[in-house]
């Protein structure tokens, strides 16, 4: 039996196969990777990640906290700067080994398709249920605990308690996320004040900068938000950040249509959620994250957030360029709904 009898308006469910789990990354084929490689002129690289202990604290999201690093043990001793001669007098090595407790979407990240779904009538029977990209229902694709004791940081046990078993981030990692990327420098054209960006603004910037955006390209949006965040030195000022940097207007139907028609494979931004969140023009029936719903749920377009793009954007503009090779695989962490990432741009 097919998982769904109807798909959302404007979605591409089934277009890449009934069991597809990588969405528009299917468009990043060998030729697209070669296109990206042909963008490399100097071999210069840019790290597009914030330090993973940024933003600092949990002011941006009360549910997400900075990484915790702890040393392991070795034979009952602290295994950090551990002098091995205490175990064997003939050994001169000094060893260190550690672990991390990591909120996967705390800092620079990719969203997996299981990060955002919606209530949808899959079987045309008038009954809505939690559903995700390509018609995977929560019933068949999500494992999660009923008990709060098995969530968060309290009572951490040695086994996992949740898994996106169909749409985990590992599928994006297995395909690889490398190809031609194009920078849209919103900060250059709009400044770094908060601006709600719809299709007309995007169209105007594309025309002014003579950008060439093709099927399978990865779109990078520079707003200046991450640069401002970095200067706050892990003490984010939310009032200032809420006035900083452009955000996409996820409720603009022309913008959503352009995303669909352009054939872009992924979108990454240096702001908190790519789009305005929560969406200020939301009605009671609608999504608080309409762009996420359109990209993750309908089209299978991964979204990257809190990337650091300022240095790259300045370089590209100085050298009259807009495209580059992007290498940005997520962690191959089975069942995760998001992943930290350290993207590298090569120009």
TrEMBL record:
SUPFAM superfamilies: Putative cyclase
Pfam families, alphabetized: Cyclase (PF04199)
Protein name according to UniProt: Cyclase
Upper taxonomic lineage: Bacteria, Pseudomonadati, Pseudomonadota, Gammaproteobacteria, Moraxellales
InterPro entries associated with the record: KFase/CYL (IPR007325), KFase_sf (IPR037175)
Domain of life: Bacteria
């Amino acid at each position: 039996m097919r998982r769904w009898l109807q798909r959302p308006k404007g979605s591409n469910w089934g277009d890449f196969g009934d069991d597809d789990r990588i969405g528009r990354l299917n468009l990043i084929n060998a030729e697209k990777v070669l296109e990206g490689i042909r963008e490399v002129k100097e071999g210069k690289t840019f790290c597009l990640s914030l330090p993973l202990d940024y933003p600092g604290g949990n002011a941006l999201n009360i549910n997400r906290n900075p990484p915790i690093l702890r040393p392991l043990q070795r034979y009952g001793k602290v295994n950090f700067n551990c002098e091995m001669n205490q175990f064997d007098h003939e050994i001169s090595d000094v060893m260190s080994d550690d672990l991390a407790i990591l909120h996967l979407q705390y800092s620079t990240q990719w969203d997996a398709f299981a990060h955002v779904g919606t209530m949808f009538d899959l079987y045309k029977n008038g009954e809505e249920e939690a559903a995700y990209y390509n018609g995977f229902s929560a019933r068949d694709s999500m494992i999660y605990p009923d008990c709060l004791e098995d969530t968060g940081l309290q009572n951490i046990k040695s086994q996992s308690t949740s898994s996106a078993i169909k749409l985990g981030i590992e599928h994006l990692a297995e395909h690889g996320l490398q190809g031609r990327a194009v920078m849209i420098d919103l900060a250059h054209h709009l400044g770094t004040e908060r601006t709600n960006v719809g299709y007309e603004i995007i169209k105007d910037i594309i025309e002014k900068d003579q950008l060439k955006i093709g099927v399978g390209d990865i779109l990078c949006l520079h707003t200046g938000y991450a640069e401002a965040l970095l200067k706050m030195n892990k003490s984010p000022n939310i009032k200032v950040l809420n006035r900083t940097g452009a955000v996409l207007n996820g409720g603009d139907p022309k913008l959503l249509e352009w995303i669909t028609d352009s054939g872009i494979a992924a979108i990454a931004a240096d702001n908190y959620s790519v789009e305005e969140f929560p969406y200020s023009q939301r009605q009671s029936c609608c999504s608080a994250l309409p762009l996420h719903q359109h990209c993750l749920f309908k089209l299978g377009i991964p979204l990257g957030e809190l990337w650091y793009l300022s240095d790259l954007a300045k370089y590209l503009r100085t050298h009259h360029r807009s495209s580059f090779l992007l290498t940005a695989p997520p962690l191959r962490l089975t069942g995760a709904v998001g992943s930290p990432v350290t993207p590298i741009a090569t120009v």
